[in-house]
Amino acid sequence: MSCCDLAAAGQLGKAGIMASDCEPALNQAESRNPTLERYLGALREAKNDSEQFAALLLVTKAVKAGDIDAKTRRRIFDAVGFTFPNRLLTTKEAPDGCPDHVLRALGVALLACFCSDPELATHPQVLNKIPILSTFLTARGDPDDAARRSMIDDTYQCLTAVAGTPRGPRHLIAGGTVSALCQAYLGHGYGFDQALALLVGLLAAAETQCWKEAEPDLLAVLRGLSEDFQKAEDASKFELCQLLPLFLPPTTVPPECLRDLQAGLARILGSKLSSWQRNPALKLAARLAHACGSDWIPAGSSGSKFLALLVNLACVEVRLGLEETGTEVKEDVVTACYALMELGIQECTRCEQSLLKEPQKVQLVSIMKEAIGAVILYLQQVGPEKQKEPFVFASVRILGAWLAEETSSLRKEVCQLLPFLVRYAKTLYEEAEEANDLSQQVANLAISPTNPGPTWPGDALRLLLPGWCHLTVEDGPREILIKEGAPSLLCKYFLQQWELTSPGHDTSVLPDSVEIGLQTCCHIFLNLVVTAPGLIKRDACFTSLMNTLMTSLPALVQQQGRLLLAANVATLGLLMARLLSTSPALQGTPASRGFFGAAILFLSQSHVARATPGSDQAVLALSPDYEGIWADLQELWFLGMQAFTGCVPLLPWLAPAALRSRWPQELLQLLGSVSPNSVKPEMVAAYQGVLVELARANRLCREAMRLQAERRDWRLQQGLLYEPGEGSPTSDPLLPPALPQCVL
């Protein structure tokens, strides 16, 4: 058989592929073309390759593209089978006068015909050809060879058909198709545009797996696309805006790509554009902001102007999208603009190394305030039927980001919206709890290039906690939150989130947002303890919270790297214990003793005596674990000392327990071993408060303090360590200034 005959036989694949748009009934096809039945019979009865070639040629001549349907294609497959195409794909010997790729081209054409049937596209005999087909995409040869081009087209047809099946992307990724597609695109040979289109589909379907299997090749494509984007002067730059978000890696974006992307976006957004041109650029910028924060924006005047422009455009788009009546909100664009507004909020509140100058910050805050006003107005109109929609969640997120930094402006509007926010957070919390899907409770809202599903459960409370922390300090908002049941909801949320950190859960895989959320909950509860103590006493949810704090702190203080959370739990528990001192749970029960023992451990380990070069006397210094986070810890520590002092007279068993822990003795020993000048006045006041109350509350504490002082050769002259009527306080210049004379 001649080379020309082989090429003609290969056209069977084209007929099958083109026929996907025309599906006449099988009996009609048979009645119109009885000759086809005879040729199919000959194809089935062929005894060798030559006879199969001849029969294929006859079938090709008997079939027109528009006259073949899926059932007829399936009958052709049944007649040919996979054995013949398999040999064609693997043979290295072509007939005399034919290029070596002709047989492979015919084999691919047959596969392309078969793959037009979705059932055959998932056949194991097709799937195991994926590695072979992938090699055809990067094979070298004459770019003008029609047969080679036909083979490449058929190869893409096969791979695209497989990608369209439910598990197809996974098979293609495992078969090395992603790397082959990247190399085909970068080579810019015939069909490279098809390679890019298929890459886009695979990334949209299985982004994580693609990057895991072919990160170097995908980064190379990203570099090429970024460079093209930076240089583009025609409409292609707008098309690239839509493609590039899909090629941003889940890890670090190469710096050269960031430079090219920023430069390209600066040129686009700095021009007068229509919405269809501007919106893809805003979405690309949002993806970069979500992935890199502000690191992709250069420092200096050009970077600050670009960022100001970016946030300004985003705010305008948000207002236009939410305030215009009678038009449908472009949710994907507005959500992208929310991400850019978040970037603006972060930069406006950054004190050091901010890209923005103060006048720019003032201007942007004013502009963002107007956009947030539009968000509040939109949320006021959200009905129960829309509360599960992703866009509502995104709107609550941006409002939460704003309230975390600014609650003084738009106060009236925020207060009016608080009932909705509490109900919304409660709805999402209860549904997530019923589904027992705790992993969703700590998920972050992603600016994704793919469309979310019909519902998007999210941890709305985590987004609102910082703002509520500020609002619970103010009388009006706090009363609304209490009236709407926010404290009870927060208690339930805290207990649920705490379960994620309890023994049996792998805390190493939890995002930081879980622990940060727990800390912020503690801050809200601290505000309520101070401003609404009656609520703590009467609401049963705080009794449950107190029980959890008591049982959890002993293990928490022993865990490395969780000192700040332990500080929050200890301080909150001490303040609540002062209000709930009559509770049976605090009357010397094992849980209460364990809690106060752990609280003493937290308070007592903050400072140590540290030797100083060239001096015989040590100084009072922070212990290593506390030193690095003291800026965040010190307020909690001082408040905890004050709260512990307040608990001593309310809980008669506490002073003896403190004595058994040897905290008073060790504290006196510490103060006696350091230079008096190294003890700051606020430390003196904190230690004085604890020692005075312990001495007042218990005779054994006074005796222990006296013995400790005598060991240091001190003389006790102050009356607070005597029973009433014993001795009289006098001044003694020999007392160490580190310990106030009102104590000793």
UniProtKB/TrEMBL annotation:
Cross-referenced SUPFAM superfamilies: ARM repeat
One cellular component (GO) term of this entry: postsynapse
GO biological process, one term: neuron projection development
InterPro entries cross-referenced by the UniProt entry: ARM-type_fold (IPR016024), Neurochondrin (IPR008709)
Family per similarity comment: Belongs to the neurochondrin family.
Protein name: Neurochondrin
